[in-house]
Model the fold of this input.
Amino acid sequence: MTEETFMRLVQRFRNPPRFFMAALWATCAILLSDGWLPAAAPPPVVSQIGPNRVRLYWTLPNCRVYLLRSTNGMPLESFASVVYGPGVRNYLDDSNAPAGCAISYAMATNALSETSSIVLLTNVPQVTLTISTCQTIPYQHLLRIRYVMGRTCVETPQAELAWAPTGTGRWTNFGPELVTRPELGFWGRFTADWSLPEDFDTKTPLDLRFVPMLGGWTGDTNIYSNVDLSGLFTTVSELVQPCILGNPCRDGSGVIFANLPTGTTVDIYTLSGKKVIRLPPEGIIGGKLRWDLRAATLERIRPGIYPCRIEDPEHRLFNLTLIVSR
Done:
């Protein structure tokens, strides 16, 4: 190299072109970053691969990816940040996605302000609920409903239970008269006992409806049609001896003694033989006598077993057992 050529190079570096420094700083920024950072990320492709698992796919050069999630219209929040190098996969599983919700996903690169358009997913859980049998319990005036429930999602679902006269579609939700209503577990067989009101028309068959629910999600409707209630009785004349309707009963409810001739006395005792109360025969209406589970002191009786001694005007004795649960 001649001395003249060398001096020209020195002079060029002393007075670089105007774009040189800008290009130099840009090159440094790229080297210091995790790779080439696009201005904004494209929206991810979202697919549900489980009730609590959603997979997000995308195609991007090597870069830092921020994954954003929103549930039921809440603001987007970052739930994952992934740094990619050569040959790293281009998907991530959201394994904590709440089932039964509307979930929005978006992506960002470089800065959270550079966010892609939003992708909406309705996350459907897998819950099955099937009524298997319905059985009438005449002397307790109960309809026993057995059903099978299964779920694969993490959350615990609820069940909406209703009845309607067969074929009418006039649904009425079960209220507190549904005696046994266990919390739905992960899966298994369950029993719900329905204590029918004393004036319920048991001559009309019923349709029963169970619907699983989870948050804002409602599952498939399960209808058990044409339930025959003829095994129960409508009037007390269909039975000969005194009986207790709604037995066993829950603490805080009440019971009815039925098939009582006028003038019958009803004495209720504890297991130790202490008399709780004598129900006045003046309260017998149409062969029925209602008791609100209060002792002679007007205090609520405790859960337990209570022998009942019934004596009719002809001095015939009948011994019954009342069970009060919590």
